[in-house]
Amino acid sequence: MTVWDEALPGAPRAVLVHGAPGCGTDSFAAQQPLADLFRLEVVGRRSAGGGPGAERDDYAADAEAVGRLLHPGAHLVGHATGGAVAMLAAAEQPDAVRSLTLIEPAALDAARPSLGQLALAEWPKVVVNGVHGGPRPDRRADPDTAPPAVCGESVAETIGARHVRVDGTGHYPHREHPEAVNAVLRRLWQS
Asked: Is 45 within 8 Å of 17 (Cβ atoms)?
């Protein structure tokens, strides 16, 4: 875990989960300016699988580790397969979550068991996507082949989240247009 914290003591915490095993600091480097008001704890997936074909147990083990980091309370952000981990962790530890943000969520099959619980959660939820050439309604029903923005829109609808598309970006809207994503995070975390 990498911690970025330039805020006053007792500042709200945010746990940011990158989808690839190892260090997520490269993925979330553009969010480091948020450390002026928030304590940012950046983690990567620990399981060796990491990709959409990884076993459910890999995601469950990572979600358990992230769930332990949430206490006594934190905002939770997940990118790509880290979004699946974040969804599972939030469903397992709902009392420790202050808000949930999913950026380009992937591996939705692994996270599917958590969707009902997330829909019932009363904390704020946001799904952020880049723009991948527009919606493809013919592939919307199949999360394995649907474009990420369509999956994100579907997840947002299912869990009762606000859906934000960031123009001019692809799979890394938080890196490609950090000002827009950081503004969403800052508003969410200060509400």
From this structure: yes
Indicate the angle between helix axes 56-70 and 81-92, nearest 10 degrees: 60
Helix or strand (DSSP H, E) at 2: strand 2-4
Q: Residue 36 has which token pair?
A: 């002026």
What's the pTM value of the predicted model, to 2 decimals?
A: 0.88
Comparing 50 with 42, the larger pLDDT belongs to: 42
Taking the mean position of all CA atoms in its chain, how far away is CA 182? 13
Residue 47, class by beta-carbon neighbours within 10 Å (0-12 exposed, 13-18 middle, 19+ buried)? middle
**CA dist 46 to 14, 83, 89, Å?**
18, 14, 14
Residue 63 near residue 93 (C-beta atoms within 8 A): no
Sheet holding 97-103, edge to edge: 2-4, 39-45, 13-21, 74-79, 97-103, 125-130, 162-166
- Of the two residues 51 and 26, the one the predictor is more confident about is 26
